Protein backbone atom coordinates (compact mmCIF):
# COMPACT_ATOMS: atom_id res chain seq x y z
CA UNK A 1 0.00 0.00 0.00
CA UNK A 2 1.15 3.54 -0.71
CA UNK A 3 0.48 6.80 1.12
CA UNK A 4 0.71 10.17 -0.64
CA UNK A 5 2.06 13.37 0.82
CA UNK A 6 1.47 16.38 -1.39
CA UNK A 7 1.97 14.38 -4.60
CA UNK A 8 4.82 12.13 -3.45
CA UNK A 9 4.07 8.43 -2.81
CA UNK A 10 5.52 6.47 0.10
CA UNK A 11 5.25 2.70 0.38
CA UNK A 12 4.14 1.17 3.66
CA UNK A 13 6.33 -1.63 4.96
CA UNK A 14 4.53 -4.89 5.80
CA UNK A 15 0.92 -6.01 5.77
CA UNK A 16 -1.92 -3.94 7.13
CA UNK A 17 -4.61 -5.77 9.14
CA UNK A 18 -8.11 -5.71 7.66
CA UNK A 19 -11.65 -5.71 9.04
CA UNK A 20 -12.38 -9.19 10.42
CA UNK A 21 -8.72 -9.90 11.30
CA UNK A 22 -7.58 -10.50 14.85
CA UNK A 23 -5.90 -7.25 15.87
CA UNK A 24 -2.13 -7.72 16.18
CA UNK A 25 -0.81 -7.21 19.68
CA UNK A 26 1.86 -4.57 20.20
CA UNK A 27 3.89 -2.89 22.92
CA UNK A 28 4.37 0.86 23.31
CA UNK A 29 4.97 3.22 26.21
CA UNK A 30 2.51 5.70 27.70
CA UNK A 31 3.34 9.09 29.20
CA UNK A 32 4.04 7.46 32.57
CA UNK A 33 6.64 5.35 30.70
CA UNK A 34 4.73 2.14 31.46
CA UNK A 35 4.66 -0.51 28.75
CA UNK A 36 1.16 -0.88 27.34
CA UNK A 37 0.02 -3.82 25.22
CA UNK A 38 -3.18 -4.20 23.24
CA UNK A 39 -3.88 -7.35 25.27
CA UNK A 40 -4.17 -5.08 28.34
CA UNK A 41 -7.50 -3.94 26.89
CA UNK A 42 -8.91 -7.37 25.96
CA UNK A 43 -12.64 -7.42 26.69
CA UNK A 44 -12.95 -3.70 25.95
CA UNK A 45 -13.77 -1.87 22.75
CA UNK A 46 -10.65 -0.01 21.60
CA UNK A 47 -10.41 2.86 19.12
CA UNK A 48 -6.82 3.46 17.97
CA UNK A 49 -6.04 6.81 16.33
CA UNK A 50 -2.64 6.78 14.63
CA UNK A 51 -0.93 10.06 13.80
CA UNK A 52 2.37 10.68 12.00
CA UNK A 53 3.56 13.65 14.12
CA UNK A 54 1.75 15.26 17.06
CA UNK A 55 3.44 18.59 16.28
CA UNK A 56 1.70 19.10 12.93
CA UNK A 57 -1.62 20.83 12.25
CA UNK A 58 -3.61 17.82 10.96
CA UNK A 59 -2.32 15.51 13.69
CA UNK A 60 -3.21 18.11 16.31
CA UNK A 61 -6.74 18.32 14.86
CA UNK A 62 -7.11 14.53 14.80
CA UNK A 63 -5.86 14.06 18.37
CA UNK A 64 -8.13 16.83 19.68
CA UNK A 65 -11.17 15.50 17.79
CA UNK A 66 -10.79 11.97 19.14
CA UNK A 67 -9.93 13.24 22.63
CA UNK A 68 -13.23 15.15 22.68
CA UNK A 69 -15.05 11.95 21.75
CA UNK A 70 -13.12 9.91 24.32
CA UNK A 71 -14.68 11.82 27.17
CA UNK A 72 -18.16 11.18 25.75
CA UNK A 73 -17.94 7.49 24.75
CA UNK A 74 -18.59 5.10 27.62
CA UNK A 75 -17.00 1.66 27.50
CA UNK A 76 -14.55 2.55 24.72
CA UNK A 77 -10.81 2.86 25.32
CA UNK A 78 -9.31 5.51 23.05
CA UNK A 79 -5.61 5.27 22.23
CA UNK A 80 -3.67 7.85 20.24
CA UNK A 81 -0.33 6.57 19.03
CA UNK A 82 2.56 8.18 17.19
CA UNK A 83 6.28 7.64 17.01
CA UNK A 84 6.95 11.03 18.60
CA UNK A 85 9.05 11.02 21.74
CA UNK A 86 7.52 10.97 25.20
CA UNK A 87 8.71 14.57 25.68
CA UNK A 88 7.00 15.75 22.48
CA UNK A 89 3.73 14.06 23.44
CA UNK A 90 3.90 15.37 27.01
CA UNK A 91 4.49 18.90 25.74
CA UNK A 92 1.47 18.60 23.42
CA UNK A 93 -0.70 17.31 26.29
CA UNK A 94 0.36 20.06 28.71
CA UNK A 95 -2.59 22.22 29.71
CA UNK A 96 -5.11 20.07 27.86
CA UNK A 97 -7.72 17.85 29.48
CA UNK A 98 -6.65 14.55 27.91
CA UNK A 99 -9.09 11.63 28.26
CA UNK A 100 -7.24 9.21 26.01
CA UNK A 101 -4.21 6.98 26.41
CA UNK A 102 -1.23 8.56 24.61
CA UNK A 103 1.33 6.02 23.43
CA UNK A 104 4.72 6.71 21.90
CA UNK A 105 5.95 4.04 19.51
CA UNK A 106 9.59 5.08 19.34
CA UNK A 107 10.68 1.46 18.81
CA UNK A 108 8.07 1.09 16.01
CA UNK A 109 6.65 -2.12 17.53
CA UNK A 110 3.11 -0.98 16.75
CA UNK A 111 4.13 0.31 13.32
CA UNK A 112 5.65 -3.05 12.38
CA UNK A 113 2.73 -5.08 13.74
CA UNK A 114 0.22 -3.00 11.75
CA UNK A 115 2.35 -2.43 8.62
CA UNK A 116 2.12 1.35 8.97
CA UNK A 117 5.74 2.50 8.73
CA UNK A 118 6.62 4.97 5.97
CA UNK A 119 10.35 4.20 6.00
CA UNK A 120 11.46 7.18 3.90
CA UNK A 121 9.82 9.59 6.35
CA UNK A 122 10.29 7.62 9.55
CA UNK A 123 6.63 8.15 10.47
CA UNK A 124 3.53 6.06 10.98
CA UNK A 125 0.73 6.38 8.41
CA UNK A 126 -2.36 8.27 9.55
CA UNK A 127 -4.99 5.65 10.33
CA UNK A 128 -7.85 4.61 12.61
CA UNK A 129 -8.78 1.15 13.89
CA UNK A 130 -11.70 -0.07 16.00
CA UNK A 131 -11.25 -3.36 17.83
CA UNK A 132 -14.17 -5.19 19.43
CA UNK A 133 -14.25 -6.95 22.79
CA UNK A 134 -12.99 -10.19 21.19
CA UNK A 135 -9.91 -8.49 19.75
CA UNK A 136 -11.18 -8.36 16.15
CA UNK A 137 -10.85 -5.35 13.89
CA UNK A 138 -14.32 -4.01 13.05
CA UNK A 139 -13.19 -0.78 11.36
CA UNK A 140 -10.02 0.24 9.55
CA UNK A 141 -9.10 3.40 7.69
CA UNK A 142 -5.62 4.13 6.41
CA UNK A 143 -5.74 7.68 5.08
CA UNK A 144 -4.28 7.70 1.57
CA UNK A 145 -3.25 11.40 1.67
CA UNK A 146 -1.05 12.07 4.70
CA UNK A 147 -2.17 15.71 4.95
CA UNK A 148 -5.89 14.80 5.11
CA UNK A 149 -7.90 14.11 8.24
CA UNK A 150 -9.52 10.70 8.75
CA UNK A 151 -13.26 10.18 8.82
CA UNK A 152 -14.35 10.81 12.41
CA UNK A 153 -17.99 9.69 12.25
CA UNK A 154 -17.49 6.16 10.88
CA UNK A 155 -15.03 4.92 13.53
CA UNK A 156 -17.10 6.47 16.30
CA UNK A 157 -20.20 4.68 14.99
CA UNK A 158 -18.20 1.44 14.68
CA UNK A 159 -17.04 1.80 18.29
CA UNK A 160 -20.60 2.44 19.47
CA UNK A 161 -21.83 -0.62 17.58
CA UNK A 162 -19.07 -2.78 19.03
CA UNK A 163 -20.18 -1.93 22.58
CA UNK A 164 -23.91 -2.47 21.98
CA UNK A 165 -25.65 -5.36 23.78
CA UNK A 166 -26.70 -8.38 21.73
CA UNK A 167 -30.23 -9.87 21.60
CA UNK A 168 -29.86 -11.44 25.06
CA UNK A 169 -28.94 -8.09 26.58
CA UNK A 170 -25.31 -9.04 27.21
CA UNK A 171 -22.62 -6.68 26.01
CA UNK A 172 -20.77 -7.81 22.91
UniProtKB/TrEMBL annotation:
GO molecular function annotation: thioredoxin peroxidase activity
Comp. bias intervals (Basic and acidic residues): 151-166
Keyword Electron transport: no
Positions of the Thioredoxin domain: 17-164
PROSITE patterns linked: THIOREDOXIN_2 (PS51352)
CDD domains for the chain: PRX_Atyp2cys (cd03014)
Record-linked Pfam families: AhpC-TSA
Disordered: region residues: 148-172
Signal peptide positions on this chain: none
Keyword tags: Antioxidant, Disulfide bond, Oxidoreductase, Peroxidase, Redox-active center
Protein name: Thiol peroxidase (Atypical 2-Cys peroxiredoxin)
Source species of the chain: Carnobacterium alterfunditum
Amino acid sequence: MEINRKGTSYKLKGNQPKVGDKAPDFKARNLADSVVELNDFFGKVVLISVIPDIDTRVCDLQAKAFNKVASELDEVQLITISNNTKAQQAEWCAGKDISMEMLHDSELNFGQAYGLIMEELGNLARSVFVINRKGEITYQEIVSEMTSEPDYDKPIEAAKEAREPNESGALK
